Amino acid sequence: MTVTTAGPLPEGEYDVTVVGAGVVGSAIARELARLPLRTALVEAADDVGEGTSKANTAILHTGFDAVPGSLEARLVREGQRMLAAYAADSGIPVEPLGALLVAWDQEQLAALPGLARKAVSNGYDAARILDAGEVRAREPGLGPGALGALHVPGESIICPWTTTLAYATQAVCGGVDLHLNCRVNTVTSGEPYTLGTSRGVLRTRHLVNAAGLYADELDRLLGHTDFTVTPRRGQLIVFDKFARPLVRHILLPVPGALGKGVLVSPTVYGNVMLGPTAEDLDDKTATGSTAEGLAQLREKGRRILPALLAEEVTAVYAGLRAATEHDDYRIVARPERRCVTVGGIRSTGLTASMAIAAHVVELLGEGGLPLGGARELAPVRMPNLGEAFPRPYRSAEMIAADPDYGRIVCHCERVTRGEIRDALAGAIPPGSLDGLRRRTRARGGRCQGFFCGPAVRALFEQAGAGR
Amino acid sequence: MNRTVDALVVGAGPAGLAVAARLAALGAGRVEVLEREPEAGGVPRHCHHGGFGGRLQGPVYARGLTEAAVWCGAVVRTGVSAIGWAGPLTVEVTGPGGLERITARAVVLATGARERPRSARLVPGSRPAGVLTTGELQQAVHLYGQPVGRRAVVVGAEPVAYHAVRTLRRAGARVVALVTEQPRGAWAGTAGRAGGGVLAAPPPVLTGTAVTELLGRGRLSGVRIRHADGRTGVVGCDTVVFTGDWIPDHELARYGGLALDPGTRGPAVDASFRTSEPGVFAVGNVLRGVERAAVAAAEGAAAADQVLAHLSGAPWPVLGPPLVVRAPLVWVSPNRVTGAGAGRMLLRSGAPLVNPVVTVDQDGARLHRARVLGPVSPWRSMRLPLRWTARVGLDGGPVVIGVA
């Protein structure tokens, strides 16, 4: 089990290297871990899932609204089934709440039958149109003026943090070397490739570009100019847990001529999320929120679920989708050059991740990567971060076996000393307090550290984490 | 494990400890206090400045209150958390000893208040390290000896802002600006005097100024500010402390379905600290954010007599008409009338006033009119005597409090 965060990289040559440990790169590494190969997963940040994968809408999509016949439609459909099963086996919280695409005007109402037909062409036939009365009965908190909705019962919410961490943990336990704080600066093509990284040289025969927002730049280092990533910022507001009873479904906007609206969705942590904005930017690091963005979201949220706005805001964040000039995913294999680029994976990447991984490994095979000798990976069981599932502070058995599961450190999120200790001793320990939050929820609640901040920091520093 | 006690107090801050001490001293039976932190005492534990209970330092005051409660016979349990309700007067508790359900004849909520963090204030920008509240700052410096930054901006105009300045300085940071949207701070006219102490060298104060964006990746690099006249700028800093802007930490009250007051955002109570739920009392800063520790402790002591009366079988009234405040007033506490009350109400204005005349009306009839002498600031409550409550019609409309 190898996770490195500093110092020179190991000598020798990797059979295959995945650049980018987001949800997609980690899923690919996990798939590769099944093969008797020497595999590396390299990541510029100090943690897995530290880019777009940590800051999205956290929805496990059915793919009902994908472009029929596209690669994205197929991979989302397959990936949804794969991830739903994997989540159940691995302890990743998923809540199958179903979605309502609520129509607020005649144009949106008129669009619903088309969306229902599109769902059928995407192989999803459980979507139904509800009239205004049925919508109101399902969501009594909706603002006035909801004319109808498309009900998509298969849409779910999921924990994006645990998903990426589960993939990466399984990959590492399966023998993949994870190198963090390792930015790829140069690529010298040849047999093998020579990557110049912020931590020295890495040699690899096969290469997977899963660099997300930076996939176009890595591609240019490889000599390809297929696409340009235009970061599309999505700001999101997370409301207090007191808002959770206000909404039962994922409330999705009906796509229309006036652009995409915003969604209101419960999170698996028991909050309610409002967003995202959609702003095309040039800066791939512009993950800040803006006064205009927040005002716009609150305005739209007020119409959808008026009572939501009366609750406190627990967190605000912004993620950047790796949008390109192409409508579909850009998964391009160059077998003769032994490389695969996984580009343009936007909002649906979390859902499709396992199917993308299987697809990419197949493409690597076409480039000569030996795919024989696959084995089953040892299953992974992740600590539960979901409100809908048992948590240690409520478990008499866990507390009896280890009293630290009864010592709540983060009171708002009810995270115990035992859970923090476990995360700090995990296969992939957090590199920062934010990383610890994504593993435990500690400091993620309404007080944002007023009560627990220094106590959590002390545990983090005692463990020697983040060094 | 299921247990029964006579009075269960949730929260061992000044209010909770005071109510427990007096209840135990009055012979209320088994009086148990639940504290989720490893030590009792509440917020004063990490307030290393004087002015508590006269001239005491916060931690000394906290220890004194704890010792008094224990000496009087209350059981003060630390490191255990009240996590919800299993019945109207049954609280679910978790701790290293396992799960419990504690049923009480009276439950007293004394869960305190917290400062609203940056996110709740909707301050845009990046999410770097170095963004704190005073509570986090004081704990980091005074309880954990953790380093904070070197250049700090403090946001807020309440007395707590000055305490943040002192804590930052003690930790070796330079406070480059004190920023507030208010036209003046709590310290104005008192030569930097705050909470019984004097700041020899006050930091530069920017009044009428808002923090509009946080800058920096990884670590805070500065804050963007905007003055009321439209000027903008960036103040370089690696730490920003958002102070004041208190809000009740009222999770149990909400999960218990208690009626809340829209002004205070805490549980609605009458002058006897009775909530809408029979047998459930609320005292201290969970009622509103925020009063000084001595005020919270005095409320606790006063509430003990009311709890004892309940334990002796006094009937539980239905909460009467709500007290509603008109701007610039922001809240009143207590905020329900159930009959003739003793003592006083606390009335908070959102803007500075001078010699205001307070009026109380119900259904068009004037119940009370009185001038409050002197200046009134947004961080100090006016005290309103309760003599007029006997004239409130309990079946009437809302009682409206305003200033002229």
Automatic annotation (TrEMBL), chain A:
It comes from the Bacteria. This is FAD/NAD(P)-binding oxidoreductase. It comes from Streptomyces purpureus. Residues 408-461 form the BFD-like [2Fe-2S]-binding domain. It holds the Pfam family DAO. Residues 15-363 form the FAD dependent oxidoreductase domain.
Automatic annotation (TrEMBL), chain B:
It comes from the Bacteria. Keywords: Oxidoreductase. It comes from Streptomyces purpureus. GO terms for molecular function: oxidoreductase activity. SUPFAM superfamilies: FAD/NAD(P)-binding domain (SSF51905). This is Oxidoreductase. Residues 6-300 form the FAD/NAD(P)-binding domain. The keyword Kinase does not apply. Gene3D superfamilies: FAD/NAD(P)-binding domain. Transmembrane segments: none annotated.
